[in-house]
């Protein structure tokens, strides 16, 4: 009886700990393979082929220590490489990234999921119903 009680409590602690810590499978390096942007109801989709043909880069690095870095060239028309750094943490379905960009802190909250080693990030700007959905695979 005591053993069953102990195993039951241990199982509850493990399950609760997993829920609170988020998905540590996010840690690692990822590269963009799909980018969907909906602005004012109009959707634009960039597939792996489109991104490769354009020379687009958006790499994410989620350190196990909570440090975050992204290297990308999709933020400007000249496709000039940029790097931004900060921190990250996750819950079971939300990913929080804090960036330090030109002396300004930017807080981003993504809904996320991981399936078949593909990381899907979704961010929405509710007042205008704008949405960005990005998919990444491990590097």
How does this model look, in words?
- The chain is of the alpha+beta class and 139 residues long.
- The protein has helices spanning 2-21, 48-54; strands at residues 28-39, 42-46, 58-62, 67-72, 82-90, 94-101, 104-115, 118-125, 130-138.
- The chain has a single domain, classed as Lipocalin, CATH 2.40.128.280.
- It has an eight-stranded antiparallel beta barrel.
- The model is unreliable at 1-21 (pLDDT under 50).
- The longest helix is centred in the first third of the chain and has 20 residues, at 2-21.
- Strand 8 and strand 9 form a beta hairpin.
- 19% of the residues lie in helices and 53% in strands.
- The termini are far apart.
Short description:
By secondary structure, this protein is an alpha+beta fold. Helices cover 19% and strands 53% of the residues.
């Amino acid at each position: 009886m005591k053993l069953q009680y102990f195993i039951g409590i241990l199982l509850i602690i493990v399950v609760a700990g997993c829920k609170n810590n988020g998905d540590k499978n996010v840690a690692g390096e990822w590269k963009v393979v799909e980018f969907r942007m909906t602005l004012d109801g109009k959707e634009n989709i960039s597939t792996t082929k489109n991104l490769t043909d354009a020379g687009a880069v958006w790499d994410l690095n989620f350190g196990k220590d909570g440090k975050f870095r992204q290297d990308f060239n999709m933020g400007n028309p000249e496709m000039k490489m940029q790097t931004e750094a900060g921190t990250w943490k996750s819950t079971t379905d939300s990913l929080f990234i804090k960036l330090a960009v030109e002396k300004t802190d930017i807080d981003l909250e993504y809904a996320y999921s991981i399936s078949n080693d593909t990381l899907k990030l979704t961010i929405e700007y509710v007042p205008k119903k704008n949405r960005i959905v990005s998919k990444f695979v491990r590097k």
